[in-house]
Amino acid sequence: MPSASFLLYGANGYTGALVARMAARLGLNPILAGRDRGSIVQLATELELEHRAFALDDASAVEANLKDVPVILHCAGPFSRTSQPMVDACLRTQTHYLDITGEIAVFESLAARDAEARGAGVMLLPGVGFDVVPSDCLAAHLKRRLPAATKLTLAIQGTGRISHGTATTMIENMGRGGLIRRGGRLTPVPTAWRTRRIDFGRGEVSATTIPWGDVATAFYSTGIPNIEVYAALPQSARRMMAASRWLNPLLTAPAVQAFLKRRIKARPAGPSDEERARGASFVWGEVEDDGGAKCVSRLSGPEGYTLTAQAALAVVERTLKGDAPAGFQTPSLAYGADFILELEGVTREDVS
Ligand SMILES: NC(=O)c1ccc[n+]([C@@H]2O[C@H](COP(=O)([O-])OP(=O)(O)OC[C@H]3O[C@@H](n4cnc5c(N)ncnc54)[C@H](OP(=O)(O)O)[C@@H]3O)[C@@H](O)[C@H]2O)c1
Predict the structure, then answer these.
(1) Each residue of 76-131: pLDDT tens digit?
(2) Is the sign of the CA dihedral 113, 115, 121, 127 positive or negative?
(3) Class of residue 207 by CB neighbours under 10 A (exposed 0-12, middle 13-18, buried 19+)
(4) Which of 112, 202, 290, 319 has its CA 20 to 30 A from that of 47?
(5) What secondary structure letter does DSSP report for 132?
(6) How many helices and strands, by DSSP H and E, does the chain display?
(7) Does this model's pTM top 0.90?
(8) Measuring CA to CA, how many Å separate 178 from each of 104, 220, 256, 297?
(9) Could you tell which of 52, 82, 101, 163 is best to mutate to test the pocket of ligand 1, judged by most ligand atoms within 8 Å of the CB?
């Protein structure tokens, strides 16, 4: 077996396994890791890769498993529960940290460790999946087009179903309302606060505010102080989100959370290979300055989970080549606004 290149934690999850298979096809030779030895061994045997089994609640085991590894790609979420022990160990072992979170609180907690990471010579780059690589690169492109921009609006549209992990993360964040950035500060707003019409390139559709990762990251990438993110959702989902405002205390109750998670487990783990091959994703962005000038650009690309695996591995490859600036990074801060265009199937268009 050739020498291993990076450690992929959470390799037995839906997204982790997708990344593992794509990495094996690309000859990247990751070490597959996770807490469930049985399923990790099974996948590693199938893909003829090295494996390690360890849980995140044992700090010395995490550290021991990272000390000979230059880069970790963390795919085990919700990251509000899993990122801190991994980052703690990475800073001790000088391992570059990548993850596929989309959780605003996680981005902010890693941004707060910037100085610590610089001191350790370690890159902390969360959000290397669909959330937030395409939208972050689009935000940086728009800032480049209108350097005086003071307002950024982003919107996403995906096709197809979501995975267990994505649904679980959404459920854990339900009942907490929405978030935007206003005057540089994270500002709570009601769930489904605003709805507007957006043309992702196939005619206008309705899109509603969601607390997507860019509310955190685009501020670090562009310095733009006012940021809103929208998602194109069916009318039924928009209505449900608006109705959930009145149910917020109920939605955070442990019994309700447990019931919803049981319902998720009864569904398929995520989109099938055929669904992903048929699917697509779209990102739209608009910047405005105080004089009323506006620019609009948009991206289209592969289905979200496919794009996540592609983007995460493109970041891994850069990092392994030593292109890993120390400290907290966003995708566009580390690799530039045009990084997204390196991924197969992604195109960008300046609309106005
Ligand atoms: N940024 C993006 O665009 C993007 C795209 C896809 C997924 N995601 C996020 O990635 C995460 C995983 O999604 P998924 O679809 O792969 O979910 P999944 O199929 O449910 O897999 C979850 C993985 O996380 C592991 N895990 C969960 N809690 C853990 C803990 N406390 N300690 C150690 N391992 C733990 C699970 O291990 P066990 O099997 O041992 O439970 C499993 O390997 C979710 O948070 C999701 O929102 C983000």
Answers:
(1) 999 999 999 999 999 999 999 999 999 999 999 999 999 999 999 999 999 999 99
(2) positive
(3) buried
(4) 319
(5) B
(6) 15, 16
(7) yes
(8) 11, 20, 20, 25
(9) 163
